[in-house]
Specification:
There is one protein chain. This protein has 401 residues and is mainly α. 70% of the residues lie in helices and 0% in strands. It has 21 helices and no strands. The radius of gyration is 21 Å and the shape is globular. The protein starts with a helix and ends with a helix.
Length: 401
């Protein structure tokens, strides 16, 4: 094992890598169908991880930002300035990477360009006290979905915001290139900042705690599980008490919901936002719906998962090393699996000795990520994309006055 890797791992919270690795594998489940299906074609595993994996990924972005800027003892002065610029520069680098992946046209909602926006929006709160950041996250978790609902209603055809949105999109080069620009990043897309920033800010607040403390780790498990249970139970109860499901059946539109049936939408998820034809949609907790109940529910799961891996990480360090390796090489493995899906879509390996790779795409993605990440971590250290990202962001940030 390289000396640099041993040195880095000595102070690295491996539980964070494990949680991030699980989030990446969860996205693999959704994107390429890793797992099993029942006779009706439904996948229990997909329903379990849908939305929650991406929420965990976003929460851990906030944790990483906090650790990069000092963790429980935040940097100050010039050092905090360098950390802030590192975060912004990382976002600016991920924007074109995410846009290029989106331009491939793969049937995957690529999160990286949205990640770039999350990083930039998170930067102003990097030097705030964790309680203020946590309070902001909670406030946005309640108000963001409601504001999103009404803004998107105003963006409907013949609505007062239809014209301004069309004008913005007409001048947005990202819309022309990838059909995914600033309006999507902020309000209407698959991971809109207005409903996803609570995850990132919650992670930023958590990253300011002493994550090596067993008490903090246990608290994360307890608080996260309680939040998730309360949110999902409240949504379930309200939908039955107010007969919400019958209202949603009456107003269900397959095109806007992104799926064929209401049941599938509630189990497998929506395209990032709820339809705006009935406010009752805000009472659901469906994956990728961006409702208050989904934000608190998926966010609670993410917090509990992080706390659990922090607790067990030091005991299962080597048993779960492949999972942690995937988490440490999250950018590389994420980009790699999207490119492999693209290769499969184009049929580039058909008729070649490598055709079995795309014939069994689910296993190729899963095992390929685990084996590649493990070997790279052992033999090299930082990932092939993580290394340049670290070097470039550090080099540029240190040269900004």
């Amino acid at each position: 094992m390289p000396r640099g890797l041993r040195t880095a791992d000595a102070s690295r919270l491996v539980g964070i890598d494990m949680a991030r690795g699980l989030a990446i594998l969860g996205m693999f489940v959704v994107h390429v169908g890793v797992g099993w299906t029942d006779d009706a074609g439904a996948s229990t595993l997909t329903e379990l991880v849908a939305g929650r994996s991406a929420a965990t990924f976003a929460l851990l972005a906030g944790v990483s930002i906090a650790l990069l800027s000092g963790g429980p003892t935040p940097k100050s002065g010039h050092d905090m300035g360098v950390a802030l610029w590192r975060v912004v520069i990382r976002g600016l680098i991920m924007l074109p990477i995410g846009t290029l992946l989106t331009m491939t046209g793969v049937p995957v909602s690529v999160i990286l360009a949205y990640y770039a926006v999350f990083f930039v929006l998170c930067a102003p709160l990097m030097d705030e006290r964790w309680k203020i950041v946590a309070g902001t996250a909670a406030f946005l978790a309640v108000t963001g979905p409601v504001v999103s609902f009404y803004l998107r209603r105003l963006m409907e055809p013949d609505g007062p915001l239809e014209g301004p949105v069309q004008t913005i999109n007409s001048y947005d080069p990202l819309v022309a290139w990838a059909d995914d620009g600033v309006v999507n990043f902020l309000i209407t897309g698959s991971y809109p900042a207005i409903t996803w920033m609570p995850f990132v800010l919650a992670g930023l607040a958590i990253g300011r705690l002493n994550l090596r403390s067993p008490k903090v780790q246990l608290a994360l498990v307890g608080v996260g599980a309680s939040l998730a249970a309360a949110a999902y139970t409240a949504s379930w109860a309200l939908m039955r008490l107010l007969e919400v499901r019958s209202r949603l059946e009456a107003s269900f539109d397959a095109e806007s919901a992104g799926t064929d049936t209401l049941g599938a939408a509630l189990r497998e998820g929506l395209p990032g936002t709820v339809p705006v034809n009935d406010w009752a949609w805000l009472l659901t907790a469906a994956p990728h719906s961006g409702t208050p109940f989904e934000v608190f529910g998926a966010g609670g799961v993410a917090i509990a998962v992080l706390g659990l891996f922090l607790l067990v990480g030091r005991y299962l360090r080597w048993v779960l090393f492949p999972l942690a390796a995937v988490g440490a090489l999250a950018l590389t493995t994420y980009v790699g699996h999207v490119l492999l899906i693209w290769v499969d879509e184009l049929g580039l390996l058909e008729g070649t000795p490598l055709q079995p790779v795309t014939d069994a795409l689910d296993w190729s993605v899963l095992l390929g990520a685990l084996v590649f990440a493990t070997l790279w971590r052992v033999l090299v250290g930082r990932g092939p994309l993580e290394g340049p990202l670290h070097v470039v962001s550090m080099w540029v940030a240190r040269r900004i006055p």
